[in-house]
Structures are given as structure tokens and as C-alpha cells.
DNA sequence: CCAAAAGTGTTAACCCTACACCCATGG
DNA sequence: CCATGGGTGTAGGGTTAACACTTTTGG
């Protein structure tokens, strides 16, 4: 087996994150509507290559920083928030994906709806939120990356509780159903949805109700001791959920 | 957003592969048996760190080489074979996983049973095949990586046709069932298995039969136009199946 | 009282599983 | 003819999807 020493490699490692949340207001680029839409923040590139284009938030991996920590750091710099869910998506490393040789380890994250609406990162000038269905021209292969992140979200929503990553700690079943409907792109039967979620035993009912329109709806909280979904082969320091649950 | 220039980074990128196949002979380290077992090749490290320990086959990423190409290259160097299935597993990048800073992009691959039995790589001296259930002490975090690869295999066997990656182009339903049983670790009902696989419409029956014991069993071929499983967000040059189907 | 969302009940279709049974071959 | 794996049939249980129905609020 031949191994080059590696010391002369000009290969650099970047970490970027597809940050997803739900938005129902019209404060994002693209057509507004009454039902929520999947939204994500992009940063405008201030240097070549692709100067002026929109790109995923990210940065170079620091020498003394783990991959997940780098994703969480750039996420905080961009939005000022900690995610409710964070998982590695894929490592992209085609030779021609950038003028210089860059390996991009991509993460995807979910933010709670309300927090995201008020969030301000460290450089709000060059950050804007876009409707995931109406994205602008993107730098590098980021358009394909976002497509894959959305596919992963849809897929994982089918067999896990990831959709709760979009919701505040207390929510109604209608909130949760609406999140699923937005992700999956189709309406769900309220009666069957209710039965399916409480068959999983992962929601605990509270004694509070949301009032204001028609019959009040009971608020639920997620069972704190259960992960929203399998996040992959995490190292010990990554398995704690406490850090990602605090804002 | 702060971005270091990255040019002073001592971070290096390695690509390794968890190569899996089925073996029924006793020619591998660990207890032999009549039913096949999952086997994988490991290489003995000839230098520090972990000199003398067993490790996953791999090497440094070349500057002008894509990630998938690097995985296929080291796979060929180790076994002399092209895989029937190759997919990225995960990028491992904890700071303390190696004395120097190394990002390891791990792939997992399936080899056909018969091909693997006769395979000889470019350095057979330092390569040995092990029963996946009885592995030796491994270098770095490779034990955990292999665990995750086996989990991914079991998982993917539940909803895709990956198990066919273990089989030659023509096989009986009993062959296929046995592969699934080995992966999943439990017996499957032959009658129900038959119905489930031909409900997927991905197997084409041939007019040949395998004789030699009891009633002859019909040989099947896989529908060539269907991928064994979703391999992720592949770039155009990676989507061709031709290269991975030839030995 | 009416509209509309919250929540419960019911039923038919579907799928999965277990297992009985017949078929074809080697010994 | 017998043992054994190949292959087919079928009945029961569980899950899903569709939709009728009752409950509770705001207006």
C-alpha cells in the first residue's frame, strides 16, 4: 500500500451547515403565504470565488476543533442561536467543486420557529433568510447540498421525531402536524396523526391548553430523555443533548 | 464571521474503507461455522502510531483525487477487486482521535462472496480477513467505525436491496435469504421472503436452475437498471454503476 | 346558533406472519 | 421411498387510511 506522507497536501477542510427552520411570515425572500415554509439562512460571499453569490454559512476547520464543534460555532455566528438538532450530512470532496482543493463536511441543523424569527447573528449585514423552495443562485455545489439536506429531512421525518426540532418546548398536536405537513408536502389526517404520535409514547401531555380560537388544544412536551433521531456515530462529548437544548 | 485563511492548517485528510463480504470457509481469524459470516480485511500498521495493530485499509487523500475515487483506489490496493457497492459512511474528525490532526472520511463497501475468496491485494503480507464478530484490537477509533458500518448495513438491509452486493450475478432465493439472515442475525421464513422480494419487482428470473441437492432452485438476476440502494448525493462521475459492477 | 378546530369511534383494506401443504430431486 | 429444500396456499392479527361523529370554544 502506498501512502504519501501527506505533509505537502494543499487540501483544506471546511465545515458548513444547512440551517433549517419554519417561517410563516413574509420576512423572507420568496412568496409569502399563510402556511409555514421551510426557510434557511444564507450568507453573501465577500470574496472570490463566487464573490457576491449566496452560500451556506461555514468556515475553515480550526486545528483544535472537532467537526461538530465547528458546525455549532458557525451556526452560532450566523444566527446567534444553538440548534435543537444537529447532525452530520455528508462530506463533499469532488476535485472540481472549488478552484482550490476543499473538502467540505456539511452538517444540517434545525432551529425552533420563534427563536429563529428573532435571531440576529454576528454579521446580520450579509445574512438573509430564504424560502427553501425559492433559492437564489448559489456558490459552489451548495444548491445540490441543500437539496440533499431537504431530502434527508423529509426522509427522517418519516421514521423519527425530528420535526419536533422546529417547535418550541410546548406545542399542540396541530403545531406538530403542521410541521410534518410542511416537511412532507401533503396534508395528514388529524385523527390518525394523533393516534400515531401517542402510540410512540414520546410526548407527555401537560395540563395547559392553548386558547384563542375555537376549542382549546392541549399542549404537549417531548419526553426529555429521548433523542429526536439517530444522529450517527457520535463521540462521547457529542452525545449530550443538554448543549443543543439551551438557547 | 471569522475565517482563518486555512493555509497554515496542519489538518490532513485520510480516506478509509470498511470492506465487507460473506465467508463460509474457516480461512479467517475467528471461529468457523457452516453458516456464512460477515468478514472484513484489516491491514497491520507498519509504523507509529499503533504500529503492529490492525486497522482499516486506507490512505491519505491525493490532491487531485475525489473522495470516492480514493476509497475505490485503496479498496483495489487491498483486495485487488472492485466493489459491488460503495457508499460514504461518515466523516470522523474528533481532535483526539489521532496524535496528529486527521479527518477520516470513511466509506463502506460490499464484495461478492466468491471474488473475495480468491482476492489478493498488492500487499498480502500485511492483510488478513477477520470475522466481523471477532475482531482483534484495532488502531484509532476503528472499532467504533466498524460497529457503525455494520449498523448501517443491517439498517439498510431492512429497506433496500444492498444484500445483493454480497452475491454473484446469478443466485437463488435461498442464497439471497441466507445473506439477509446473516446480516440481520435471524432466520427468515422462506415462503414470506419469496413473496416480499418478488413484490419489489427488482429480480428477474432466469431459465437456469441450480441443481445438486434436492429440488433444483431457480436462478435469479438483479434488474440491472436499479441501484442496490441510495448511495447519497453523488456527483455525476460517481453515479455510474458500470465501474463498480466489473471485477 | 353557527363555524371550525379538538378529539373519539368505527370500519374496510392492506400487510405481515405463521404454518400447512404440495413438488421435485438425490440418495 | 424417504428426507430435504423449493415453492404455493391460506387464515389470523395488527396496522393504516378514510371518514362519520361528538365536544368545545369564539363570534
Automatic annotation (TrEMBL), chains A, B:
Origin, by domain of life? Bacteria
The record's listing under CDD domains reads:
NUDIX_NadM_like
**Coiled-coil boundaries:** none
The record, for SUPFAM superfamilies, names: Nudix, Winged helix' DNA-binding domain
The residue ranges of the Nudix hydrolase domain are 10-154
InterPro entries referenced in this protein's UniProt entry, alphabetically: NUDIX_hydrolase-like_dom_sf (IPR015797), NUDIX_hydrolase_dom (IPR000086), WH-like_DNA-bd_sf (IPR036388), WH_DNA-bd_sf (IPR036390), WHD_NrtR (IPR054105)
**Name listed for the protein in its UniProt record:** NUDIX domain-containing protein
Q: Which organism is it from?
A: Microbacterium panaciterrae
Amino acid at each position: 500500500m502506498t501512502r504519501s506522507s501527506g505533509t505537502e497536501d494543499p487540501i483544506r477542510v471546511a465545515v458548513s451547515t444547512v440551517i433549517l427552520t419554519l417561517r410563516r411570515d413574509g420576512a423572507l425572500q420568496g412568496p409569502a403565504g399563510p402556511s409555514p415554509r421551510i426557510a434557511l439562512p444564507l450568507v453573501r460571499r465577500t470574496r472570490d470565488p463566487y464573490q457576491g453569490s449566496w452560500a451556506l454559512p461555514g468556515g475553515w476547520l480550526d486545528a483544535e476543533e472537532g467537526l461538530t464543534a465547528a458546525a455549532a460555532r458557525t451556526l452560532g455566528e450566523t444566527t446567534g442561536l444553538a440548534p435543537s438538532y444537529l447532525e452530520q450530512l455528508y462530506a463533499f470532496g469532488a476535485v472540481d467543486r472549488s478552484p482550490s482543493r476543499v473538502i467540505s463536511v456539511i452538517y444540517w441543523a434545525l432551529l425552533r420557529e420563534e427563536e429563529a424569527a428573532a435571531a440576529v447573528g454576528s454579521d446580520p449585514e450579509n445574512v438573509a433568510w430564504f424560502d427553501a423552495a425559492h433559492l437564489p443562485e448559489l456558490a459552489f455545489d451548495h444548491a445540490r447540498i441543500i437539496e440533499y439536506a431537504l431530502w434527508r429531512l423529509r426522509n427522517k421525518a418519516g421514521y423519527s421525531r425530528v420535526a419536533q426540532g422546529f417547535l418550541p418546548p410546548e406545542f399542540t398536536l396541530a403545531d406538530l402536524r403542521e410541521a410534518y405537513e410542511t416537511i412532507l408536502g401533503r396534508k395528514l389526517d388529524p385523527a390518525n396523526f394523533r393516534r400515531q404520535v401517542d402510540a410512540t409514547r414520546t410526548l407527555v401531555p401537560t395540563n395547559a391548553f392553548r386558547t384563542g380560537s375555537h376549542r382549546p388544544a392541549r399542549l404537549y412536551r417531548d419526553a426529555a430523555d429521548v433523542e429526536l433521531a439517530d444522529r450517527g456515530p457520535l463521540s462521547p462529548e457529542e452525545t449530550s443533548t443538554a448543549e443543543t437544548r439551551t438557547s
